[in-house]
Design a protein that fits this description.
The chain has 164 residues and is an alpha+beta fold. Helix content is 38%, strand content 15%. It is globular and about 55 Å long. Bound molecules: FE2/S2 (inorganic) cluster (2 copies). The site of one FE2/S2 (inorganic) cluster has 11 residues, from loops. The site of one FE2/S2 (inorganic) cluster has 12 residues, from loops.
Length: 164
């Protein structure tokens, strides 16, 4: 066992991990963080997606020991001041049903919007291609992300007008 330090959802957490334990196992079974789901366990479904240093990663493929000292964000760590614009759009558009994929998709889409605040439909579909959903058919998910991209474009126009 080796002690690692995680900056998990804004809190410093120290925990001893075995060399073979994945980040997903440590989050769910040792730290009680249950929004990352265990779907396939081999990198195919995206249900276990978390943000590692702000990048969307599959926590079933990463050893916890490799994440020592890094920033890990799960769904529990976003929307502290209430649901984010993206979460609001997901709810408004019924972009999840059983919810198994939702945490991973919201985090993957959040990472995309941070890097590219106004993604087009192709960019959204590409960014979410590794996150499988068996229920929604993807249309409401893409529509929710596009709605946030439009909101961001509106904010940018307002800021530009205010500066001119
Ligand atoms: Fe990690 Fe499916 S559980 S990708
Ligand atoms: Fe059920 Fe996506 S809402 S898997």
């Amino acid at each position: 066992m080796k002690e690692i330090t995680l900056h998990l959802n804004g809190e410093v957490r120290r925990i001893a991990v075995a060399p073979h334990e994945t980040l997903l196992e440590v989050l769910r079974e040792r730290l009680g963080i249950t929004t990352p789901k265990s779907g396939c366990g081999r990198g195919d479904c995206g249900a276990c997606t978390v943000l590692l240093e702000g990048k969307a990663v599959r926590s079933c493929l990463i050893l916890a020991i490799e994440t020592d000292g890094q920033r890990v964000t799960t769904l529990e760590g976003i929307g502290e001041d209430g649901p984010t614009a993206l979460q609001q759009e997901f709810v408004k558009r019924n972009a999840f049903q059983c919810g198994f994929c939702a945490s991973g998709i919201v985090l993957a889409a959040s990472a995309l919007l941070k890097e590219n605040p106004q993604p087009n439909e192709g960019e959204i579909r590409e960014a979410l291609a590794g996150n499988l959903c068996r229920c929604t058919g993807y249309e409401p998910i893409v529509a929710a992300v596009r709605a946030v991209a439009r909101r961001n474009a509106g904010k940018k126009r307002v800021a530009k007008r205010a500066r001119s």
